[in-house]
Amino acid sequence: MPQVDPELFDRGQFQAELALKSSPIGAFKKAIRRAHDVLDARFRSIRDVRRLVEDRAWFTDQVLLEAWNRFSWSEDAEIALLAVGGYGRGELHPYSDIDLLILLGSDDQETFRESIEGFLTLLWDIGLEVGQSVRSVAECAEEARADLTVITNLMESRTIAGPEHLRVRMQEVTATAHMWPSQAFFVAKRQEQKNRHAKYNDTEYNLEPNVKSSPGGLRDVQTILWIARRHFGTLNLHAMVGQGFLLESEYTLLASSQEFLWKVRYALHMLAGRAEDRLLFDHQSKVAELLGYDEGDSKRTIERFMQKYYRVVMAIAELSDLITQHFEEVILRASESSPATALNNRFQVRDGYIEVTHPNVFKRTPFAIIEIFVLMAQHPDLNGVCADTIRLLRDHRHLIDDDFRQDIRNTSLFIELFKCEQGIHRNLRRMNRYGILGRYLPEFGHIVGQMQHDLFHIYTVDAHTLNLIKHLRKFKWPELAEKFPLASELIDKLPKPELIYLAGLYHDIGKGRGGDHSELGAIDAEAFGQRHHLPAWDTGLIVWLVQNHLAMSTTAQRKDLSDPQVINDFAAFVGDQTHLDYLYVLTVADINATNPSLWNSWRATLMRQLYTETKRALRRGLENPVEREEQIRLTQSAALEMLVRDGTDADDIEQLWSQLGDDYFLRHTADDVAWHTDAILRQPSDGDPLVLMKETTQREFEGGTQIFIYAPDQHDFFAVTVAAMAQLNLNIHDARILTSTSQFTLDTYIVLEAEGGSIGNNPQRIQQIRQSLVDTLKHPDEYPNIIQRRVPRQLKHFAFAPQVTIHNDAQRPVTVLELTAPDRPGLLAKVGRIFLDFDLSLQNAKIATLGERVEDVFFVTDANNQPLSDPELCARLQQTIITKLSATSSPSPLQISI
C-alpha cells in the first residue's frame, strides 16, 4: 500500500475542511467522492489494477482512522479496529465489502458502547457501508471454532487503529494448534468450493458468469491462498513458487489471470454503481469497451472479450485443480502414502491416482501423453492424475506437433479412448482442461472459450461439445431411460457407438469461421477420419452426421409431420435405419446439451413422431409411400375401436367424422381423435365453445399442455384465441388450425406457462384457463387487448430486424409465411391481429422459440381460402409484420415468391 498519496487523500486539506464546518459529515463525503473520481479516472487511463485496489484500501484506511480518532479512546484502552476478509488483505474494489472487526481485550463492551455506536453511526452518515462485528478475543475464538467463514475472515486481518497486541492474541487463540488444523480446514474449504461450483453447474462457461464465485473465478484463487496460509502460516502467490507448489511460469499465468478478472470486476462495480460481480448482458459490451475490446461491431466485441474471459477462467480452473491436488498430497496424504502399483512401464497408481514411473516418460515416449487418458478410461476407479504428473503433462504438451498427430500410435490411442466402456466424457474434459485436446486437434483449439452471443446456446462451443458427449453417455444410465426412452434404447443398438461420439466431437467444430459450420465441420471430420485410418464407411457416416446434424430437429419443428410426403422425403434423405438411429440419438443429445430448458415433452413428442414415421416409411420401402387414405383409415380404425369399447354409438361417430375433413385425421393421433370425439358428442349443440385440456406427457418432464378448442368458425378466431392466451401468460409452442365442413373450427395448441414451466396438474389454473377461453370465444367481437408485458431483462439485449419470407406451397393450396424475430411477450397475438387486419385465414402453424428468437411458420389463405396471389399485398404484409414487431428495425429485403 502507498505510504502517502496526496491526490487520493490530502490529510492537511481534509483537516482544514473539517475545521471550517460544524459537522464532519460534509468533509468526509467530499473526500470519499473525490477519491472515488480519482480512482475511476486512473482505471480509465489503464493504470495497474493491482495498485488501484490497494490504493482504494489505503484510502479507506485513512477515512476509518480519521473517523476512529474523533472518539475518545484512552492510550491503554483494550480495543482495536481491524480490517478483515478481503479488506484485511488490503484489496478493495469500488463497492467491495468493507469488513471490520472491533476487537476487545475482554468481554466488557459497556465501557466502549457509546463510542462504538457513535463511530458506526458516523460511518453510516458519511455513506461508508461496512460489515462490522464487535467481539472480544475469547468470543473470536468461540465463533471461529464453530464457523468456517469466521475463521477464514480472521486469518486475513490487520490493525487499522488501536493496539496491535490484541490482533496478535486473537491470531494465537485461533491458530491451528487450537482449532481448524490444516487437514480439517483443507477438507472443509474443498467441500465449500465444490458446493459453490455446483451452484454454477460446475462449469466456467455460463452466459452471465459471476466473476467472483463461478468456477475459475477470483474466489478460486483466494481459496488456494487460504489453504496455503492455514497450512504454512503466511504464503502469497509468489511464495508458492519457492515452496514448489507453482512454477514461475504458472505463477505468472495465475497472477495475470487474477489481474484480468480484477479489471473486469472493477469495471463492473464502476458501471453498476454497486457491488455487482455478475457479468450480465447489461454490462458485457461496456466492460469490453473499457478493457479495450471495441471493434465497432458490438456482437463481435462481446464475443472476443468473452472468449478472453473464458480462457482466463479456464486457466485459473486448471491451475486451481493442479494446486489443490498438490495440497491434498502434502496436507492429507503425506504421512500415509501407500506403495505404487504398476500399470505398465510408463504409469503406476498411488493412493488412487495415476502417476508416471519416471519424470522423463513424456519426453522419451510422447505417445504416453494420449495413453494416460486411455488408461484412466480403462480404469474408471482411478480418482485422477497426481499433481506432479499434471505438471509434466503441461510441460510436455509442446511435443504435440504435426508429426505427433500423424503418428499411428497416437491416432490409434485416440480412437481407443472412444471405444472405452466408461470415462470418455470425463477424460475428454481432462484433456481439454490440461490443454491437450486443443493441441492434438487444432480445429478444436479454435472453439475453446468461443461463445455465441444469444440465449439459445448457453455454453461456449467447446463446453457444449463436451456436454453433448456427456449426454450421449448418460443415455446408457438406467435411471434416465424413462426420460429418454427411445434414445436409451437406440444407443445400445448402434453398431459402432464410438462413431457417434466422434460425430458429436466434430458437429459444431466449424463454428466461428464464417460460412456454414456444418459444411466446414464435415470437411474437418473427413480429414480426421483419414488421418486416423478409419474405414471409409465409418468416416462417411461421421461426415454425414456432422453435415446434417440439424436436419432432424429442423424437420420436426418446421415441417408438417402429418403430411405423408414430408415423412417420405425425410426417409429418402436418411436412406436407411442405421443413419436414422444415429441421427436421432445425436439430435436428442445436441438439443439437451445446447440448453436444458429446450427439452420438454412436446419437443420429445415431435422428435419421436418423426423417428417412428420415418422408420415405418423405411420398412415399407421408399418406393411404396403411404397414401393419405391409408393413414386416415388406420387412425380412424384405432380411434373407433377405443370409442365403441367405451360405449359410444358408431353411427354418431361416423356422422361427426364425415364433417371433420381429411387433414384432421392426418394431424392427430388415434388417442386424440377418440378424446375429441367423445367430448364433442357429449357437448350440447347450442352450448358454449368446447375447451379441452390435458398434458401431452408426464408432468415431471415439464410437458406442454394440449388445449383443444371446438367452436363455430369465424374469421377472427385465431387472433382472438392467441390474444386471450397472451392475457393468460401462456406461451404457445405449436398450433394446429382446422375447419370442418360444417364450419366448426378444431384448433389444437400446445402451451407452457410464460416462464417456461408446465401448467401441470393444477386444477385452479386449468379451470381459470378454460373458463377464460370459453368466455372470450363466446364474445369474439370484444377483442382482447394485447397486453404489454415487460420484456425480460436478458431478451432486451437481443434486438434484430424481424425477417419474413412468403411463398406459395408447391403441393398444397396455401401460402407459407416464415417469420424469424426477437422473442417478445405477446408476439403471436400481434401476428394474429395482423392476419385479422389483412383478412387472412390461418390453416396451420409451427411455433418454435429458440432462446431469444422465434422461428415460426404460418400456412395462410385469403378470405376465399385461396393462396395469396398479389405481390403487392404480400409486400405490405411483410412490411407490416416487420414494423409492428420491431419499431426500430429496418426492413429486410423482400423475399416473396408467389
Automatic annotation (TrEMBL):
Residues 1-342 are annotated as: Uridylyltransferase. Uridylyltransferase (UTase) activity is inhibited by glutamine, while glutamine activates uridylyl-removing (UR) activity. It catalyses: guanosine 3',5'-bis(diphosphate) + H2O = GDP + diphosphate + H(+); [protein-PII]-L-tyrosine + UTP = [protein-PII]-uridylyl-L-tyrosine + diphosphate; [protein-PII]-uridylyl-L-tyrosine + H2O = [protein-PII]-L-tyrosine + UMP + H(+). Its cofactor is Mg(2+). InterPro entries: ACT-like_dom_sf, ACT_dom, HD/PDEase_dom, HD_domain, NT_sf, PII_UdlTrfase/GS_AdlTrfase, Polymerase_NTP_transf_dom, UTase/UR. It comes from the Bacteria. One of its GO terms (molecular function) is [protein-PII] uridylyltransferase activity. Residues 461-583 form the HD domain. Residues 706-789, 816-892 form the ACT domain. Pfam families: ACT (PF01842), GlnD_UR_UTase (PF08335), HD (PF01966), NTP_transf_2 (PF01909). Keywords: Hydrolase, Magnesium, Multifunctional enzyme, Nucleotidyltransferase, Repeat, Transferase. PROSITE patterns: ACT, HD. Its EC number is 2.7.7.59, 3.1.4.-. PANTHER family: BIFUNCTIONAL URIDYLYLTRANSFERASE/URIDYLYL-REMOVING ENZYME (PTHR47320), BIFUNCTIONAL URIDYLYLTRANSFERASE_URIDYLYL-REMOVING ENZYME (PTHR47320:SF1). Belongs to the GlnD family. Has four distinct domains: an N-terminal nucleotidyltransferase (NT) domain responsible for UTase activity, a central HD domain that encodes UR activity, and two C-terminal ACT domains that seem to have a role in glutamine sensing. Modifies, by uridylylation and deuridylylation, the PII regulatory proteins (GlnB and homologs), in response to the nitrogen status of the cell that GlnD senses through the glutamine level. Under low glutamine levels, catalyzes the conversion of the PII proteins and UTP to PII-UMP and PPi, while under higher glutamine levels, GlnD hydrolyzes PII-UMP to PII and UMP (deuridylylation). Thus, controls uridylylation state and activity of the PII proteins, and plays an important role in the regulation of nitrogen metabolism. This is Bifunctional uridylyltransferase/uridylyl-removing enzyme. It comes from Phytopseudomonas seleniipraecipitans. The gene is glnD.
